[in-house]
Amino acid sequence: MNKVLAIGLNTFKESIRDKIFYSLLFFAVILILFSIVLSKLTLGDPMKIIKDFGLGSISIGGTLIAIFVGIGMVYKEMEKRTIYIILSKPLARWQFLMGKYLGLSLTILVEVAVMTVLLFALCFVYEKIVPWPLLTAIVPIYIEILVILAFALFFSAFSSPFLSGMFTLAIFIIGHFTQDLRLLAKASEDTVFKALADGAYYILPNLERLNYKTRVVHDLAIPGQELGLSFVYAVSYIAVVLITAVFIFENKDIS
Questions:
Q1: Cα–Cα nearest to 14, from 76, 58, 62
Q2: Residues in CB range of 247: below 8 A, 6 or more apart
Q3: Which ranges does the record mark as transmembrane (predicted)?
Q4: pTM for this structure?
Q5: Which of 72, 218, 220, 233 has its CA 20 to 30 A from that of 160?
Q6: CB 169 within 8 A of CB 235
Q7: Are 134 and 55 in contact (CB under 8 A)?
Q8: What is the rounded CA–CA span in Å between residue 182 and residue 4?
Q9: Would you say 105 and 149 are in contact if contact means Cβ atoms under 8 Å apart?
Q10: Tens of pLDDT along 226-247?
Q11: Long-range contacts of residues 229-236, Cβ cutoff 8 Å, at least 24 apart
């Protein structure tokens, strides 16, 4: 476990120094600040618009960091040939991969924390209270990003960064529409489309199970049991994806 922590800490320091991380963080901060402009230009409760747009910005910013930083972690080590030095030491491949995942999870946690503080500060300026209920949406957002990160690492174990990015982005998009696709397929007479939609529904993650943004912004009740089941679902999914990634990486020829 100490070796996993050491790789994780090194990956965290490496990704924090990555220019892509700061570029995407800056992009996400701009999105949150843009919510102020949007709240003044559109009709409706400005606080709801700021919260809704702010939560969406945290989700998009974190997901982009998970994809763009996550897909290159293993590839960079292979390209620089540093992976041969690392794996020549008494370190198992699974420890290397899990350390990478742990380090990137910490990096994204920092990003989500920075964005959350900024969003809380904006809300405090308008409402003079700290919007703690927003955490009910932000924690699931972080868990969802960890699911995406697991897929980024999974694809990077056997494909190029470009393909890994495309595949992971597809998982993110389809993951939010699997339920809609299935409902659409039920109304269709196309058997092939029905089979594909059913396959996507059962195999791919249903990321809408971690989407509580709208309900939190509109102060709708969210049962604790529902939240708990969503976390169990996401953690189980992450475990399966990471175990599969480890299996592929263990059998990958990197000589």
A1: 76
A2: none
A3: 20-41, 53-75, 101-126, 132-155, 162-179, 227-249
A4: 0.88
A5: 233
A6: no
A7: yes
A8: 40
A9: yes
A10: 999 999 999 999 999 999 999 9
A11: 230/140, 230/143, 231/140, 231/143, 233/206, 233/209, 234/140, 234/143, 234/144, 234/146, 234/147, 234/205, 234/209, 234/210, 235/143
The mean per-residue pLDDT over the stretch 185-203 comes to 79
Burial of 198 (0-12, 13-18, 19+ CB in 10 A): middle
Q: Do 171 and 148 contact (CB within 8 A), yes or no?
A: yes
Question: What pLDDT is recorded for position 240?
Answer: 95
Contact 128, 222 (CB under 8 A): no
Q: Which of 148, 156, 163, 154 is nearest to 108 (CA)?
A: 148
Question: Which tokens go with 194?
Answer: 């029905």
Copy the structure tokens of residue 198: 């059913």
**For residue 101, which of 148, 168, 138 has the smallest C-alpha distance?**
148
pLDDT higher than 90, residue 145: yes
* pLDDT for the residue numbered 150: 94
Residue 177's SS3 state is coil
Contact 151, 129 (CB under 8 A): no
How many beta carbons lie within 10 A of that of residue 252, not counting itself?
13
The per-residue pLDDT for range 113-132, each reduced to its tens digit, is: 988 988 898 888 888 888 89
Residues shown for the chain:
255
Angle between helical axes of 224-250 and 93-127 (0-180°, round to 10): 150
